[in-house]
Amino acid sequence: MTSDVQIPSAMPLYTDDDVVRVRAQVRQFAVEIGLSLVDQTKVVTAASELARNTLRHAGGGEARLQILQRENMRGLHLAFSDRGPGIADIGLAMTDGYTSGGGLGLGLGGAKRLVDEFELTTEVGKGTTVVIIKWKRF
Amino acid sequence: MEKIPILRIGKVLLVTIQVDMHDRLALALQEDLSERIVRDEANGVIIDISALDIVDSFIGRVLSNTAAVARILDAETIVVGMQPAVAITLVELGLNLTGVKTALNVELGMAMLSRRLRS
Ligand SMILES: Nc1ncnc2c1ncn2[C@@H]1O[C@H](COP(=O)(O)OP(=O)(O)OP(=O)(O)O)[C@@H](O)[C@H]1O
Ligand SMILES: [Mg+2]
């Protein structure tokens, strides 16, 4: 049985300040579902990486934040999507240390390690969506 | 534009980061610090991040770069006050703050700097 408590609210990601706002909102939801301080920190950090990727590599997009409710657990479902250039080689992009310019190349691989579920969908010329979920188990 | 204040204590510059820094602010801090090291002839920099509740790859890179630039300008940088949850997350993220020295708090950071300057 599944019921998702909240309709995801879309938050724009076009400026540095938008990234700060998304981090703050993710933190608030993380506290709300009762994540431990370490798990809060992990999911906010993952969100920060993905939000920045949306901004830097795709010129902007949006974040959708949602609290998931399952029978015995709650989770935070975060989707970052853009209509940017897409990613031609996902394996390469996910590789630690690979950056197409300027970064450390840790964002995607790091974000994946920090959460429970990670899904990247992309199409060259169309855009990219990354969905992550962090669960709070009871 | 807003700025992060830089305090001077003798030959040491102290920066306490109190806000969730957006990227431009972090880059501005890196530049301001480099200028102040030269102007104040500082030989040490302490960056207090105890109020930061995350350090992601971008902030991590700014800290590493700041330390690298400071070193070329003959100043030692010590990052102090990292929260345990932030440290745990950094390791999992895969970020090793290359070239960045750390201490638990400002006092210990100061002690570290003065030891280095004496020897
Ligand atoms: N939303 C996106 N749209 C297009 N390309 C992307 C997107 N997100 C990531 N990429 C590509 O994947 C590469 C790896 O991303 P990752 O976040 O791991 O590293 P980075 O952003 O380059 O550096 P860092 O995150 O460490 O500062 C990027 O350099 C970029 O080429
Ligand atoms: Mg990135």
What is the CATH topology descriptor of chain A?
Answer: Heat Shock Protein 90
Work out the radius of gyration of chain A: 14 Å
Q: Quaternary state, please? A: heterodimer
Rounded to the nearest angstrom, the distance between the terminal CA atoms of chain A is 16 Å
CATH architectural label of chain A: 2-Layer Sandwich
- Portion of residues in beta strands of chain A equals 25-35%
Please indicate the count of domains of chain B. 1
Let me know the number of strands of chain A: 6
Helix content of chain A: 25-40%
Average predicted local confidence, pLDDT of chain B:
93
Number of helices of chain A: 4
H/I helix tally of chain B: 4
* Shape, per Cα inertia axes of chain B: globular
Distinct bound molecules: adenosine-5'-triphosphate, magnesium ion
Placed side by side, the strands forming the largest sheet of chain B appear as: 1-2-3-4-5
CATH topology-level fold name of chain B:
Transcription Regulator spoIIAA
Secondary-structure element order of chain A, as H and E?
EEHHEEHHEE
- Spatial separation of the terminal alpha carbons of chain B: 40 Å
Provide the number of structural domains of chain A: 1
* Poorly predicted residue ranges of chain B: none
Structure notes:
The complex is a heterodimer of chains A (138) and B (119). Chain A is α+β, with helices and mostly antiparallel strands. Helices cover 38% and strands 33% of the residues of chain A. Chain A contains four helices and six strands; from the N terminus they run ββααββααββ. In chain A, strands 1, 2, 3, 4, 5 and 6 form a six-stranded antiparallel sheet that branches. The two termini of chain A are 16 Å apart. By secondary structure, chain B is α/β, with parallel strands linked by helices. Chain B has one domain: Transcription Regulator spoIIAA (2-Layer Sandwich). Chain B contains four helices and five strands; from the N terminus they run ββαβαβαβα. Chain B has a five-stranded mixed sheet. In chain B, α1 packs parallel to α2. The model of chain B has no long low-confidence stretch (mean pLDDT 93). Chains A and B meet through α1, α2 and α4 of A and α1, α2 and α3 of B. The structure holds adenosine-5'-triphosphate and magnesium ion.
